Amino acid sequence: MALKYQAQIGLAIAAVFICLNVLYFGFESAIAVRRIIHERQRHPGSIVNAQYLAPLVIVLLGGILIPFLFVGERDHQNSCSKNVDADIAGRGIRFAAWAQIGVLLFVALLGTFHNRATMAKEIGAGLVVTHLSLSIALLINRQYGQPTTAEMVLGSMMLDAQNSALSIPLVTKETLAARWQVVITVVCQGFGLALLGVILHEIGDGKFVVCDCRCVAVAWWGDAGAGDGNCDNALPFLHIVRRQDMRALWVYYSCRLISYAQSSFHSLMNMEAFHKAENQPQGEGILNGLTFPQVHPEPRSWLQQLIFKRKPKSEYEKYMTTVSLAYLVYGMFAITSMVAVECAMAKIKPGGVEKITIGQAIAIVVAAATILRAVWLLHKVRNGGWEVPPVIEALTSGCSGRQN
C-alpha cells in the first residue's frame, strides 16, 4: 500500500505544479502579447505584480508539499548489490552537481538585489559541460552496458537536476548578452530532456530490471523503479515484469517541459537586446523590447506610473544582474531531484560509487573552481548598488505597517 499511496501523493503534487507553471507562463506571455498589440512600452500593472509573486507562491507551496514526496517507508526490499557507474552517480559527480546548483542559486539571489553579481555565465558554461558528460555516460551505458533500474533511476534524477539548473543562468543579464551560450544551453537542455523522457519510458516498461535488482523503487515524483509486482522471490524471474505506475513522473515531466519552454522563450527573445546593450560604451546601452518587465522598474511610485505612460530607459550597467525571479522555481525542481538522489543512495546502497574515475576527477575540479568563484564574488559585490525589488519591498512594508 505504501507504493500506491506514494504514487497518488506524487501525482497530486505534480498536478498542482503543472497548473501553477501554466499560469505563470501565461502571465509572462500576456506581458509580451500586450506589448506587441499596443506597440508601446506600457507598464502592465497587475500582470507584472502577478508575475513577480507567481514564483514566490510556487516555491512557498513547494516547501510545504514536496516533503510529502519522501514521507513513508516502502513495503519491500530496496537494496541493489549491482555496481552503479561512478560517472553517473559517484560521489564526485554528486558533489559537483550540488556545488554548481548551489552557487548558481547563490549568484542569482545576489543578482536580484545587485548589479555586479556576475559569474553566472561561467558557472552555467561549466554546468553545460557536466550535463553533456552525464548524458553521454547514460547513453553509452544504456546502449553498450548492462544498466540496472537503480542505475538508470539515479542517472535520470541527476540528469533532471542539472537540466533544471541550466535555466538559472538564462535569467541573468551576463548570460543573455552571450548569444552563442544561450543557444548552446537551450539545445543542451532540449537534448537532456529528450533523453530523460526516453529513460523514463524504458524504466516504466521494466527494460532495466535484472535478476538481482528486480525490486527497486525509490521516492521521487511518486515512485521510480521496478514496481512492487516484481518483489516476490517465490516467482520465477521473467523478462516481462509488472510495470510501475509512472503517471506522477509523466505529469512532472510535462511540468518540466513547460519550464523549459518558458526559459527558452524568454532567453531566445531577449538575448539580442542584451547583446546590443552590453556592447555599447561604458555599459550605457539601452534595453528595449524585453518580453518580461524589469525586476526593478522605474519610476517606482504609483503616481509616477500614472503620469509617465512611456516605459523609462533601462541602462545595461544599472540593470540588476538577475532579470527574472523564475530562477526560484528552477532551483526548487533541481534541489528536489538532488535530494531524491541522496535519499535513493541511502536506501539502495549500490556498489561502485566510491570508484575513482576520470569523470569524477573532472567533476571535482569543476566543483572546486565553482566554489572559488563564489568566494571571489563575495569580494566583488562589496562595491555597487544594492536595491530591493519593489514588490518585495511593498510586501515587507505592508507587513510592518500592519504590525504598527
TrEMBL record:
Keywords: Membrane, Transmembrane, Transmembrane helix. The chain crosses the membrane at residues 6-31, 52-72, 92-111, 123-140, 180-200, 319-341, 361-378. This is Uncharacterized protein. It comes from Colletotrichum destructivum.
